[in-house]
Amino acid sequence: EGSVTNLFTSIVGNVFGFKALRALRLEDLRIPPAYSKTFIGPPHGIQVERDKLNKYGRPLLGCTIKPKLGLSAKNYGRAVYECLRGGLDFTKDDENVNSQPFMRWRDRFLFVAEALFKSQAETGEIKGHYLNATAGTCEEMMKRAVFARELGAPIVMHDYLTGGFTANTSLAFYCRDNGLLLHIHRAMHAVIDRQRNHGIHFRVLAKALRMSGGDHIHAGTVVGKLEGEREVTLGFVDLLRDDYI
């Protein structure tokens, strides 16, 4: 109960390795309500996020800071400020913006927090930046989430597939208890879901996220550089908002 890790261990943990199978794909899951109620679900959800931001009746507009790698923490913070001051509601770390020699995570968090408060003071709006808390251990991940909260950041981010379901659920519990929003990045999903005859369909990974915990997830794009069809992507959006899993 309440463990996405154990659920997937039971369903796909060994069968994909049977030599009698040339290929196998898990297309969908339907989770019984009695079982789904044992999971945490999203820390907050759509309505709470809008209440925290005091923004209603329109889409929330954001962007990922580019170049994703190579900026110093100070220049990264400057880019965040310029985007938020220019009218965006959110900016975000990309999946591999973490803690590198040219920009350590603590320095980035500090400069981003400064950018948040400066843009809020000048615009009178509540702003946010998805601070990537993904780390090599659960303990380090939680340390980063705690530091983000202490700085007054409204939201953190986690790479839930590379970070793992157990780590993600632990972070979701912390975010729920401490008023942090949680954005989920799906880095590594295409390794699992892109082949049509083998792997796990993204709809299953999306349902796993709903159980593990996250307020929103990158569900694909209808335009741009990434693979995915418009209708399929919009279907993922509907799936993530359904009343059942």
Automatic annotation (TrEMBL):
The keyword rRNA-binding does not apply. Gene3D superfamilies: Ribulose bisphosphate carboxylase, large subunit, C-terminal domain, RuBisCO large subunit, N-terminal domain. Pfam families: RuBisCO_large, RuBisCO_large_N. It is found in: Plastid, Chloroplast. Residues 45-244 form the Ribulose bisphosphate carboxylase large subunit C-terminal domain. Transmembrane segments: none annotated. GO terms for biological process: photorespiration; reductive pentose-phosphate cycle. Keywords: Calvin cycle, Carbon dioxide fixation, Chloroplast, Lyase, Magnesium, Metal-binding, Monooxygenase, Oxidoreductase, Photorespiration, Photosynthesis, Plastid. GO terms for cellular component: chloroplast. One of its GO terms (molecular function) is ribulose-bisphosphate carboxylase activity. It catalyses: D-ribulose 1,5-bisphosphate + O2 = 2-phosphoglycolate + (2R)-3-phosphoglycerate + 2 H(+); 2 (2R)-3-phosphoglycerate + 2 H(+) = D-ribulose 1,5-bisphosphate + CO2 + H2O. Its cofactor is Mg(2+). Residues 1-35 form the Ribulose bisphosphate carboxylase large subunit ferrodoxin-like N-terminal domain. The keyword Metal-binding applies. Belongs to the RuBisCO large chain family. Type I subfamily. RuBisCO catalyzes two reactions: the carboxylation of D-ribulose 1,5-bisphosphate, the primary event in carbon dioxide fixation, as well as the oxidative fragmentation of the pentose substrate in the photorespiration process. Both reactions occur simultaneously and in competition at the same active site. This is Ribulose bisphosphate carboxylase large chain. It comes from Phegopteris aurita. The lineage of its organism: Eukaryota, Viridiplantae, Streptophyta, Embryophyta, Tracheophyta.
